[in-house]
Amino acid sequence: MSKKYTGTWNSVNEHEVPKWYDGCKFGIFIHWGIYSVPAFAPRTWELGAVETNEEWFCNNPYAEWYYNSINVGKGPSYEHHIEKYGKDFSYEDFLPMWKAENWQPQKWAELFRKAGAKYVVLTTKHHDGFCLYPSEYTDFNCEELGPKRDITGELTDAVRSEGLKMGLYYSGLIDWQFANDPIFKEEDNFGNACPTFEYADYSYNQMKELVDKYHPSVFWNDIGWPKQSEHMMPYFLAHYYNVVEEGVVNDRFNGLYHDFSTKEYKQGEANRKEKWEMCRGMGLSFGYNENEGDDQLISVPDLIHLLVATVSDNGNLLLNIGPKPDGTIPAEQEKRLLALGKWLEINGEGIYDTSCSAHLPETAGDGVQLFFTAKEKDLYVFIEGLSKEENTVLIPGVKGSAETLDSTLNVQCEETKEGMKVRINGYDKEKHIICLKVKDGE
Ligand SMILES: CC(C)[C@@H]1NC[C@@H](O)[C@H](O)[C@@H]1O
Q1: Quick check: do 9-350 and 357-438 share a fold?
Q2: What's the rounded Cα separation, in Å, for the pair 156 and 109?
Q3: Which atom of ligand 1 is nearest to 29's Cα?
Q4: Binning pLDDT at 50, 70 and 90, where does residue 211 land?
Q5: Beta 315-321 vs 26-30: how paired, if at all?
Q6: What pTM was computed for the model?
């Protein structure tokens, strides 16, 4: 019998992170919207690498912030817009250009499955206020305008038919249909970007209709929750958990509540004692940015490192894709998803359904890095930085014998007083990070 929650903090605080979310480890974020048509942002910084001040907002690397990037009236995106479209061309004028004419949700879902992802999170309403589902509360949605399809509904069905969980993103505190002064500093964001009871009611009703229509396994709220309806938060959470028993939410609820905490690029702190999630685009943007070609995206080795380092630290990786307005996924992004999936086919046993090991990451000399995960008593050792075909690596403090998850490798183990010495033959750099399984090694 599933627990019934009531609209009190005491009740919803009893909620625990569902096992499926912890075990999934890898998901796909999707930022698709009107901003995918101009698909423009300067390549400047990773979030968290610099202060989010006026310089950030006037040189914003996030292509999904195009509305604000032209609204500030200066900087590369503004100049690009004036030059390419002219000053009388509004953001909403891009809508008829977003046709999704080549969009095949089933193809997306198949690609996500092949990538080894176990859940998906789609933007249902980003900061521009345009809804990627037929909301009862606004006609500014994708069934009435632009693609003229229920993007959320079609993708949810396709994702679930491939055996993946479906999550929904909602921009809880910023909606440029309600408050569209240009944003030059963080306080303009988080202060309370939409400070009216009208918006508080609107956003509450939309969040509830998303839960009731799609039963999302993840509710990914962004930026914050309207101050005017903060007292309603426990009611929303109780309703969500009562409707979606396996439901899980992130930490962007004004710091009042979370199932898991979030990092965004370099912004945010990870604490391995609690569940957290790392999210980023493959370049510096979440929305598709035509300025980010193959050589400006994260490399496959760095992507595999990010996944291993995140999972070994008790995190999930939510990797974003930014589709084109016609509904295709840029080839350079698809290539990386398939490479990750190929690596996970061989090494996924050491990733999925694992927990944090008592062993902390460490260096093993000659630039070799070790990462660890555990599955009950079994220990998984990830070895990064091998360069030769034949390698000898000391794994300090680990006893027993190891087998490799990659059957094309040959591994011999020797127990020494410092730990397990492993000889690995048959390595080549296309294997990236390799994984050893030490039975009863945790
Ligand atoms: C992590 C991701 C959901 C980002 N959150 C902050 C937003 O401003 C940004 O565009 C993007 O959606």
Answers
A1: no
A2: 9
A3: 3
A4: very high
A5: parallel
A6: 0.97
190, pLDDT greater than 90: no
CATH no. for 9-350: 3.20.20.80
**Token pair in block for residue 413:** 């183990």
* Ligand 1, atom nearest to 31 Cα: 12
Rounded to two decimals, the ipTM of the complex is 0.96
126/175 Cα distance (integer angstroms): 7
Could you tell me the residue ranges of all domains in the chain? 9-350, 357-438
Q: Atom 1 in ligand 1: which residue has the minimum CA distance?
A: 264
Q: What is the reported pLDDT for 191?
A: 61
What's the CATH fold of domain 357-438?
A: Immunoglobulin-like (2.60.40)
Site to substitute for ligand 1 among 66, 188, 222, most atoms within 8 A of C-beta: 222
Measured from the Cα of 262, ligand 1's closest atom is 1
Burial 309-335 (b: 16+ CB within 10 A, else e): bbbbbbbbbbbbbbbbbebbbbeebbe
CA 317 – ligand 1 centroid, Å: 15
**CB under 6 Å to ligand 1: residues?**
62, 64-65, 222, 264, 279, 286
User: What average pLDDT score do residues 242-250 get?
Assistant: 97
Top mutation candidate among 169, 286, 316, 320 for ligand 1, by most atoms within 8 Å of CB = 286
Q: Residue 437 — very low, low, confident or very high, per pLDDT cuts 50/70/90?
A: very high
